Amino acid sequence: MKAIILAAGEGKRCRPLTLTRSKVMLTVANKPILEHVINALVKNDIRDIILVVGYKKERIMDYFEDGINFGVKIEYIEQKAQIGTAHAILHARQKISPDEDDFIVVNGDNIIGPEAISDLIRGSGGDATILACKKNDVSDYGVIVAKGKNVREIIEKPKTLVSHLINTGIYLFRQEIFEMIEKTPISPTGEYAITDTLQAMIDSGMSVTMAVTNAEWLDAAYSWDLLEANTIVLGDLEEELRGAKIEDGVNIKGTVSIGKNTTIRAGSYILGPVVIGENCDIGPDVVILPSTSIGSNVSVASFTYIRNSILMNDVRISTHSNISSSVIGSNVATGPNFITEEGNDMLIQIEGELQNAEKLGTIVGDDAEIGGNVLIRAGNTISSNCRISSGKTISEDIPADSIVI
Questions:
Q1: Is 101 within 8 Å of 121 (Cβ atoms)?
Q2: Which residues contact 162 (CB under 8 A, 6 or more apart)?
Q3: What CA–CA distance (Å, rounded) separates 401 from 368?
Q4: 94-133 pLDDT per residue, tens
C-alpha cells in the first residue's frame, strides 16, 4: 500500500518558526514532525511514499532524499500553488498505478502514533474511510456526524456542539477519489478541500465510513503546540547515553537520551524525559528539567535552567539564563542572564484572531542574536534574524530583521 503525505503548506500560524522552514520540518524530540509521520507508516509496513511538497521544498528534499535512510522509498510531487488538500491529492495521481486498490493520505504536519494508522486500515470500508478521534473541544476542527460507521456530514469548525468526533485528516481512499476530486468545485475560501469531495460523495449515495482511534494524534496548529507534542513524544523516549561524555558529579534521573560527542559537565542535573543531540557542550552546573529537547551542536553555559522547552540546532545559551516553556529556533545566540517569563492561559494574536496558549514563555525565530540581561515577557515573540541589545525587556512582538537598541 502506498501513502501520500501532504507536506506542501507553509504553516503560517507557526510563524516565526516557519519563515525559514515548512511546518513539517519543525522539530519535536529532535526530529522533524514529518519524520515522526514516516516512522508511524513504517511501523505499519507502509514504505512506498509519495511526498507532496511546495513551500521550502528544498529543505525537505535535502533531509529525506530518496528515503533510504528512513527505511522507505520516497517520490516527490511539487504542488506549486497551495490551494487545498484535494488539489494536492490530485497532483499525486500520476504516482498511483491504476491497478492499486487502496492508498492512504496523511498530513505531514500532525503528530501521529503508529496505532492510528493500523486503526484506519483495520476499520476501513466503503468507498472512502476517514480516521476520527474524540476531542472535548471540537471548535477548531472538522466535526464528523455519523450513524454507526457511516459518515453523514462533515462540519468545519461548528459553532454549536454536534459531535465529539473530529476528522484527523487521515484517509484511506480507492481510485474513485480522483474522479470525485475532479468534480469538486472550489470552496468559498478559494481552496479545493478534500472534505468537500467527501461530502459530495456522501450526497451522491457513495459509502464514506469512519474508523475511530484512541491513538496518539495531535495537530500542532500553533508554535506553542510544539511543546505539548514534545511532551507526548518524549513520553516514548528510550534511554541512550552511549557516545556521550558524562563528567563526574553529573546527576541524571529519569529517561534521558544524549547523542554522541556531547559533553555534560560537572555539577549538572538532568531530570528526564530529556533528549540532547550530538556535539553539544552542557554545563557545568546546568539544570535541565522534563519535557526538554536540545538539538545538536548546542552549547548551554553554567548556571542555566531549562524546563519544558525546545532548543533547535546550533543554539548558544550563555550563563545564568532561565528558559521555560519556550521554543528557540536554530542558530540563536544569547548573552548571559537571558530570561523567558512564563505565563498561563495567555491570549496570543495570530492573523488578527486571539488564540489561547495554556502555558508559554516565548518563541524565538532562527538566526537571532540576543544580548545579555534580556527579559522576554510571557507570550511575546522574537522573529528571525533579529538583533536585541543588552539590557532590554521585550514586551511586544519583534518582527523579522529588526534591531532593538
A1: no
A2: 143, 145, 155
A3: 9
A4: 888 877 779 999 999 999 999 999 999 998 888 999 999 9
